[in-house]
Write a structure and sequence with these properties.
This protein has 157 residues and is mainly beta. Helix content is 11%, strand content 43%. The chain has helices at 115-120, 136-146, and strands at 14-18, 23-28, 38-45, 52-54, 59-66, 68-73, 76-81, 85-88, 94-98, 102-110, 122-124, 150-153. It starts with 13 loop residues before the first strand and ends with a strand.
Length: 157
């Protein structure tokens, strides 16, 4: 399958409200990369947390653009600030909590098999929309339906 080049400016890409909190802007989709990866920007607010989870079949990399998070990796905690990077191999239990007023990060998942999970656990974001309430039940349902993520327990913070 021949791939087409992708060029997106800062304000371009599909925007989606993630039901676990945050606004995603999809920069390169699974289909656009031939399944190789999924890349999205995640805009986050203070206090946003994720449950402890794994990605059984995908590696995940965070590159912090602004702000900071507290990252829980396989029982150890580290702070990750602007300009920092974390690569989380598939199967490693992890979670994070936003520790700054706001944060922005790029999230790269390879291969790009998590897109169905994020579609099931998000809503399109239109100009002027406000964030919907966090709905971890919907996140859990999408995780179970797709198998792209396995929730192991509550946030460890």
């Amino acid at each position: 399958m021949a791939l087409n080049p992708i060029v997106r400016e800062a304000d371009e890409g599909e925007r989606r409200w993630f039901c676990g909190g945050g606004l995603h802007t999809w920069k390169v989709t699974e289909a656009e990369s031939g399944g190789a990866f999924l890349l999205f920007e995640d805009e986050l607010e203070a206090g946003k947390v994720t449950p402890l989870h794994i990605h059984p079949d995908a590696d995940e990399t965070f590159y912090m653009l602004d702000g900071s998070i507290r990252l829980h990796l396989d029982g150890e905690e580290r702070t990750l600030g602007a300009g920092g990077v974390a690569m989380i191999p598939r199967g490693v239990p992890h979670a994070f909590m936003v520790t700054s007023d706001n944060a922005r990060m790029l999230c790269l998942q390879n291969p790009g098999i998590g897109e169905k999970f994020f579609l099931g656990a998000s809503e399109p974001a239109r100009p002027g929309d406000t964030a919907p309430p966090v709905d971890f039940g919907r996140v859990q349902a999408s995780a179970q339906a797709t198998g792209a993520i396995e929730i192991l327990g509550p946030p460890p913070f």
